[in-house]
Amino acid sequence: MKLFRPVLFVSGILSFIMVGLLLVPAFFALMTDDEEYSAFFLSSGLAALAGLLFMLPSYGHRFALNARQLYLLTSLSWLSLSFYGALPLMLSHHPLSLTDAVFEAVSGITTTGSTVMSSLDALPHSILLWRSMLQWVGGLGVIGMAVSILPFLQVGGMRLFQTESSDWSEKSLPRFHAMARSLLLVYLGVTLACALSYFAAGMTLFDAINHAMTTVSTGGYATDDRSMGRFSDGILWISVVFMLIGGMPFMLYIRFLNQPNLDVFRDQQAQGFLLLVLALVGLLTLQQLLTTERQPFEVLTHAAFNIVSVITTTGYASTDYTLWGYFSISFFFIVTFIGGCSGSTSGGMKIFRFQLSWLFLRDQMNKLVHPRGIFSIRFNGKAVADDIMVSAVAFSFLFFLILALATLALAATGLDFVTALSGAATALTNVGPGLGDMIGPAGNFAAVSDIGKWILGFTMILGRLELLTVMVLLTPVFWRG
Amino acid sequence: MKLFRPVLFVSGILSFIMVGLLLVPAFFALMTDDEEYSAFFLSSGLAALAGLLFMLPSYGHRFALNARQLYLLTSLSWLSLSFYGALPLMLSHHPLSLTDAVFEAVSGITTTGSTVMSSLDALPHSILLWRSMLQWVGGLGVIGMAVSILPFLQVGGMRLFQTESSDWSEKSLPRFHAMARSLLLVYLGVTLACALSYFAAGMTLFDAINHAMTTVSTGGYATDDRSMGRFSDGILWISVVFMLIGGMPFMLYIRFLNQPNLDVFRDQQAQGFLLLVLALVGLLTLQQLLTTERQPFEVLTHAAFNIVSVITTTGYASTDYTLWGYFSISFFFIVTFIGGCSGSTSGGMKIFRFQLSWLFLRDQMNKLVHPRGIFSIRFNGKAVADDIMVSAVAFSFLFFLILALATLALAATGLDFVTALSGAATALTNVGPGLGDMIGPAGNFAAVSDIGKWILGFTMILGRLELLTVMVLLTPVFWRG
Ligand SMILES: [K+]
Ligand SMILES: [K+]
């Protein structure tokens, strides 16, 4: 009980946040003659009830959270948010099954964006809005987690990003509040800028708001089965800019606000990320120009849009890139793994892990040639502690181990090799679309079996929580305390 | 020149070894009315000439090899053996192109076993014998390298296997010679036992000798397009036993000879390997019995044979396992990566790296729960030094990085996703067959483009030399000295 009481208390707080969020589509439905208002009000009421039940046992107690409680809390929070997110989808007038609703909500809150729903343009607008809001909140949550919780927990090399805000002692509480406020403001501001740009470029206000929420959160839910394929080149380029903003460390924007000086963007991870995007866009554009007869600007636009969409793990599609020939299929599959920057809304393995692993390999090779040489590994101008290095490198082993297990589990449900492998990859990296006719950019996840959907949903949460945050709950030593 | 002279000298020695080896199929062809004797005698003569040219500049000099020279020598040795191996294939009466001959020889000497040749049963027997001999010599070479060179070079965690024989000082020369002799004897003995077993179970003498050489070396070249599919269940089970023997550390056999006590087999890597094989065979047998109506013993035989064939990276096929349903395709693809034990003839990532990575992850997770706890990682009863741990773990990052690059390169030559990915994987792990109609267990590599074959051949050598041995040659610091 000592382990669980604070966890329940925080779950209660989260429940009340969901009560408020659910009221948004509820009132929106009321205002727009949309019969789904009842589903949202009912869900909101149920969330309020659950919140009270969670908070009562701990009412009046004071506590501080320790590492074990933070692990438990983090995993449980994403689970409970997913279940609240699924509620209105089950209670609507065209209800989804429990499995489908939970899949859709997990895919939303983890900003994966794989969907079981089709004919999106015919869905009630309140449901579309709710899907977009889940991604937006999930994106905010993941930045908050990366800034405050994961560096403290030292998961997968994240201690590299330790700041004063990831110090969980009582004295740092005011700093913590200030950071949370800045983050919320920046996130709101960027989303607003994105929505206004989309609107100015010709989207309807509803589409602009929805896509702004799923762009900045690199979530990828759209309001139409054609994803972004129905919009103009101008809108695609706006999307490129805001997906990139969503894929960079939000700490940089907060620092820039506190100290408006472009020097804050001299960040090795962000710069490496942008350079890599440029190189990949150049490579794919060149390859397409050499092997097809498409117009250069069209090629550049779609190469840039789709690469940025996959590398930021947004998962929008402008065209079905798996029809661009064999090279592009292998290419996009591999780009799926990379991911954006740590401290952004992106998933994937993350740029800094590739940078650290690369620096580490170079160091290893130097040592092979000069066994007694001393080399120090520096990142962003600072020496990197050995344990950070090593846990960042070990992350890739665990990543591919989980990928293999998830692929096997999906294959055992009857999925073919390409669907199983790309489905596991797209879930683990929180990208969204897979490969093949079924779950590729032109398909959706409706036809996956129920057990397959639960495997994919669990894999999404594993990926979103940087694997170890969840894995540690499966060790005996965690429960022995 | 100081760097190259000893390298040239050792290349000369290797050339003369090849002179001797080439004389075997030459005399065999003479004795069996096979017109290919000329190709082998001519190749042998060319090798002798090259050997003289290599040795002349260093005649009369004394030298000891340093780490840089060992790296260069190791990579060059495999390259030069491949070219000597290709010579008779180009000089035969039905000559292969340079690309095809080098591909076949690289695939042989690295014990990969991917082939561009078909209608094998119609080929001259001397050519078949030469292909088998290449694999047999390659298998011996890789054990020798793993025992004596790689632990000294500290590549990819191999320092774990450091013994007195991997000490390259002058005083250890007699010990080194004794070790080399024991290894050769054990390898010969195991091959002889395998050949006799095959012969007793009904193979022709020629088939028995050839398959013994490609079984013990986990190479996988066969003398018929049907691979092992045409043999009895008894032969398949004999093959299982000797593939497993080939996939275990040969040091154990040598220790057993010096000290006949079963305790020498209490080796954590060998035991983990055998347990994993048992678990995988059990899993696949169960899955096949649950989903098909095949006979239990037939299922068990083919599951055991094909799993042992893939995990030891032999690459024989008894049936086309890609026709066993979707699960088995994903299953065999993933088993491809595992590989056998270090110090065996197997390729792949190797059991000890999974064991060390797993121990490392457990340690990391313990530290996540108890940040100030002290945990020590023990393997085979001894504490594992941090640097060994870390370089074993880092190996998997480099492995998947090279896999991604090779896949992209192959896709750029026009191969589809499954062929490119499985081709890169099967080359890097030295298994042999890939997935898909083209390069799957029922196909061969003849239709791959020339540039694709060179990419695959280079990938095989990278895999065979544990990646870093070759990669280090690509660093500027290596050449700066
Ligand atoms: K996404
Ligand atoms: K092989």
Automatic annotation (TrEMBL), chains A, B:
Membrane topology type: Multi-pass membrane protein
Keyword Iron found: no
Signal peptide range in chain numbering: none
TM segment ranges: 7-31, 37-58, 70-91, 136-161, 182-201, 234-253, 273-290, 323-343, 388-412, 454-479
GO MF term set: metal ion binding; potassium:chloride symporter activity
The entry's keywords: Cell inner membrane, Cell membrane, Ion transport, Membrane, Metal-binding, Potassium, Potassium transport, Transmembrane, Transmembrane helix, Transport
GO cellular component labels: plasma membrane
Subcellular location: Cell inner membrane; Cell membrane
Residues that hold K(+) according to the record: 111-112, 219, 313-314, 430-431
Major localization class: membrane
Family as reported in the entry's similarity comment: Belongs to the TrkH potassium transport family.
Protein name listed in UniProt: Trk system potassium uptake protein
